Amino acid sequence: MNKYLEKTLKDTKKKNKAESEYLQAVTEVLTSLEPVIDKHTEYEKIALLERIVEPERIISFRVPWVNDRGKVIVNRGFRVQFSSLIGPYKGGLRFAPSVNQSIMKFLGFEQIFKNALTGLPIGGAKGGSDFDPKGKSDNEIMKFCQSFMTELYRHIGQDTDVPAGDIGVGAREIGYLFGQYKRIRNAYEGGVLTGKGLEYGGSLVRKEATGYGLIYFMLEMLKANKVNSLKGKTVTISGSGNVAIYAAEKAIQLGAKVVAMSDSNGCIYDKNGIDLKLIKELKEEKRARIKEYKTTHASATYMERKGTNSPIWTIKTDIALPCATQNELTLESAKELVKNGVIAIGEGANMPTTPEAVEYFLSKKVLVAPAKAANAGGVATSAIEMSQNSIRYYWSFDEVDKKLENIMKNIFNECKTSASKYNLGNNYVAGANIAAFSKLAKAMKAQGIV
Ligand code: NDP
User: Fold this and answer.
1) Which of 78, 225, 305, 423 is the most exposed place for a label (fewest CB within 10 A)?
2) Rounded distance between C-alpha atoms, residue 15 and residue 439, angstroms
3) Is the CB of 133 under 6 A from ligand 1?
4) What's the distance, Cα to Cα, between the start and end of the chain in Å?
5) 314 touches ligand 1 (CB under 6 Å)
6) Confidence category of residue 129, pLDDT binned at 50, 70, 90
7) CA-CA distance, 383 to 116, in Å (whole number)?
């Protein structure tokens, strides 16, 4: 391996021993940059890699709140402001019990590259809390969001840092967070958060954007590899949250048959094609478990999740879309999918496929649409929401959707061009890393040692 790369990786591992997800993300990106680093020997002198892996700022704070029974609960809040190289810090907030500094840093690091790929002026960040929204009343969610924002507000702003949603943070949470921010600041800074409700500054298509964008990217990737349409293709999608639901919606619109979806407890398989209206009702309105699908669709099969591997990946499919969480698709599952004839993987979640599984897919000539590129539609539409907030004018659904589709096509072309430039064939995983890094490296050189 290139000596400079090797040394940076070794030092990063030494400094961040306990942060496995963060180290996984850094290793994945850096190892794919070898041909670029070999060519640009000047990067070492300006410590370009050492700077790109070190967050500009990490904020960690106490979030005290009182539950419905009068008990005081203390959670931990985070905001990792990773890079402001090409725009204000931008990235979602995740509320889940598994949240820790390693997960925040991995997501923030990925976000820098993803945002660079969109071609829009946004830096990289991520935040959240180990708060678990499951089973909490609306009142408890509001209390928590208000306490969280009472600290976060001093670190964000529409030209400084613009959070959005992620796991456990949807329209309801963004509403409560925005209300508290506005109250404290006594100013209507519409662009301080994205994913807002349409009544108060949100953008059409933001809700659908990550899932739709994933399918737009998938279609471009398939077309570049002689598969011209999604018509008649079988699709399985893990998760049944924001990304999964709208990936399913667009896939169905384009003629695919989505036969399985899941949640953290298990998955539903419906050979007739998933009833998406019911999934939306269960997940967006009732906040119920996916198992309940069977109550009205007796012919569907429910498979409970037992160990690390989700049962959804044992189902035969042409296209698999992991849209739930990190490291959810293991080598063992990858082997099952390949055995069953999968042709393409589209990462809707961040880092959902383990490194061994990605390597296996690539070795078996399965196309992989990497998360940083394929799920960038959400943040791209967030940037479009920011533009609309600035000009105080709102575009129609079709106008925003068209912009999103064009952005996803451009991102795919960048991944493809970079992969070909370095003779990497259709390895779009490396292509995405190289395309994003090349842009960031130029900006870093231009801005001096900061
Ligand atoms: P949601 O909270 O809306 O949905 C998450 C889904 O994943 C739920 O179905 C949830 O099931 C499932 N899930 C969560 N944790 C696990 C787990 N440990 N094992 C199995 N299933 C799990 O989140 P989003 O749809 O917004 O986000 C999903 C992924 O997409 C995340 O990786 C996120 O970072 C990424 N992403 C999201 C974007 C967005 O715009 N929202 C943009 C880009 C990336 P359950 O209800 O049982 O917990």
Assistant:
1) 423
2) 26
3) no
4) 28
5) no
6) very high
7) 12
Q: What is the pLDDT of residue 415?
A: 98
The whole model's pTM is what? 0.97
Shared domain for 135 and 9, answered yes or no, is yes
Contact between 124 and 108 under an 8 Å Cβ cutoff? The reply is: yes
Which tokens belong to 155? Answer: 């670190």
Residue 52, number of CB atoms within 10 A of its CB: 23
Residue 2 in 3-state DSSP? coil
Of 350, 374, 398, the last residue of a domain is 374
CA 322 to centroid of ligand 1, rounded, Å: 10
Q: 221 with 152, same domain? A: no
The token duo for 409 is 């096509």
Length, in residues, of the chain: 450
Taking phi first (over 0 means left), then psi (-120 to 50 degrees means alpha), and beta for anything else, what does residue 195 get?
left
CA of 81 to the centre of ligand 1 (A): 22
Instruction: Report the separation in Å between the CA atom of 279 and the middle of ligand 1, taken as the mean of its atom positions.
Output: 15
Task: Just list the catalytic residues.
Answer: 126
If one counts every other C-beta atom within 10 angstroms of the C-beta of residue 289, the result is 15
Domain containing residue 120: 3-189
Looking at the structure, tell me whether residues 109 and 57 fall in a common domain: yes
| Mean pLDDT, residues 36-50 taken together | 97
Helix (H, G, I), strand (E, B) or coil at 103: helix
